[in-house]
Amino acid sequence: MGHRGEKGDFQAPRQRRFQIFPGSALAKKPPPWVLSATLLDTQRVWGLTNAAIEPDWVIAEVPHLLMRKHFDPHWSRAQGHVLASEQISLFGLVLAPKKPVHYGRIAPVEAHDIFVRQALVTGEINTRAGFVADNLKTLEQAREEEAKLRRAGLVADEDWQARWYLDRIPSDIHSSAGLDAWWKGQPLEARRRLAWTLADLLPGEGSEEDRFPKYFALGDARLPLHYRFEPGAADDGVTLEVPLHLLNALDPARLSWLAPGFIGDKASGLIRSLPKAMRRNYVPAPDFGRAFFEAYPQPTADDIRGELARFLSRTTGAAVAATDFDESALEPHLRMNLRLREDPRKGGEARILAESRDLDELRARFGERAGQAFAARAGRAMAASGLREFPAQPIPLQVPGEAGVPAFPALRDDGDSVALQVFADRAEAEAAHPGGVRRLLDIALADRVRQARRQLPVAPKVGLLYAAIERFAEGDKAAEKERLRADIVDAALNAVLAEGLEGIRDRAAFEQRREDAGRRLFGEAMERLKLAEAILSAVAELKPQLESPLMGWARGNLDDLRAQLDGLVHPGFLRDTPAQALAELPRYLKGMRLRAERAVRDPARDQARMLEIKPFADALADAARRGVARQSGWQALRWELEELRVSMFAQELGARGGVSPKKLAQRLQALRG
Hints:
Blueprint: E1 2-4, E2 10-11, E3 17-20, E4 33-41, E5 45-52, H1 55-61, E6 67-76, E7 81-90, E8 93-102, H2 108-120, H3 131-149, H4 158-166, H5 176-184, H6 188-192, H7 198-201, H8 207-211, E9 215-218, E10 221-228, E11 237-243, H9 252-255, H10 263-272, H11 276-279, H12 285-295, H13 304-316, E12 337-341, H14 344-347, E13 352-356, H15 359-378, E14 384-387, E15 399-400, E16 406-413, E17 418-423, H16 426-444, H17 446-455, H18 460-470, H19 477-496, H20 507-542, H21 555-568, H22 573-576, H23 579-601, H24 603-626, H25 632-649, H26 661-672
Parallel strand pairs: 3-5, 11-12
Antiparallel strand pairs: 1-2, 1-4, 2-3, 4-5, 6-7, 7-8, 9-10, 10-11, 12-13, 14-17, 15-16, 16-17
């Protein structure tokens, strides 16, 4: 089956293309979708015995072969539930690009979160549950009070409103009908608990509320604060509710001030923590603590210890530094208790992950997860998957995330497609982006690659030499040539796309690189063919020299050479070897021939040099077993080892890069950390 494209040909599953045979009744006016009983492959691929079909017929007949991807989940007021777009494909052929589906049946937890945030919080819902309209009226009253006070940021934000609903409405409700049915079965008292009050939405402005606020401002977010007076309890004092994704955004200096109502007591406690010789300058400590609170009733940008040290030095003339205070000597309630909660959008319930008064300890345990959770939230607006073309919008190096924490968008290679993902870590994004760009270039250049493979002239002798490496079945000459052509063109593609992919961030740059690579591809493939002929001829000359003239003579030396040859010239080496290293293979092979001659004459001398390089070869073998040999640091060591072999066994050929055993040992130590 196939779908007619802009050029008039039909795209079939598995990236195949064909045209309707001219003698077919459908040839003059091809339908959008066609089913061909037979494909005839001549100079072109023709579809014979054709019939017009609809993609919905295919979807109905072969559901077990289809791939479904879902994107853009959103609330639909008209439908009364969360909708998403579904892309249905058959082995890469898109049958339905954007089919609307009920997202609650696919991902009920995420649909519940979208339902709360886009329907209940905004009021964009048609429902008989009266609490939604009542709460919106209360919210409007709170905003009017905020305006009277001429102070912005007092009313609870949408994130707080969403969390309030998420804590009270069952997680299996994600539609208007479901909400109405649940609301109908609730008793009167339960219905009243779903109503907001002004006290919930707007912290009071009295002295008590000023000294013990309900919320901790963090960028645009307002994190709940809880107070408890119970000495000895784990949460005695003030507790800050921290969602996982904002853990890394907390400022230790701001946390040191606790709440305004604790400033005087904490200042007194810090004074008592001073060494006795210094402490006597600031007695009685409670009086100095109260004086400090009168001078600093609200937190500043500096740590409380720095402000207190400057205040005491200024008021008494006796110098004291922030480092003189011993915060570990404070009573527990004078340090902020941090209650870390899992993001409810990830797990349904906002369960407590940990509680601690040590921010560094929490970050050591959960910092990586917090970064990933933050990146996931920051990237919802721009994240995409299943991409086979470069995105229309430029991809910025950095985007602002929640609470001012930066996030880093990049393309990620998913095999047959690419995803646009927002990373929490800059280095991880920089490592992933070139691979994603390369995959899109591979897809865009697929026709050029096939054309280059067909046109590449491969001599029978070269095909036979390559077959000895690839281990084809005897007599399968077509497979020999096709594999050689494919690997040479892939090697050429590696060369023309070897560098600069990390800087491609918009479609114009991508198209420019695609055009440049397409123009250079066949010429580079011809150069790679010449290089392949030189390498295969050198291998043919080298192999007889790796046989010992006498049984057992120089056996260890020749075994080492054979292992080196297997590492350099292996099945697929033309495709897998980096372009710069592949160009050096003739020199490496010539160095091996010289070494083989000398090893047979003087095995002991060769053995001594071989022992110098053995630790590096063993380290690379261990890296391969651990699956890290393809990392850039290990790859650099791998090719530096080849240069070291040239410098030790065939100095007249000249080694590149000034390698030495000492330099390689330093690199290996750095890789092992």
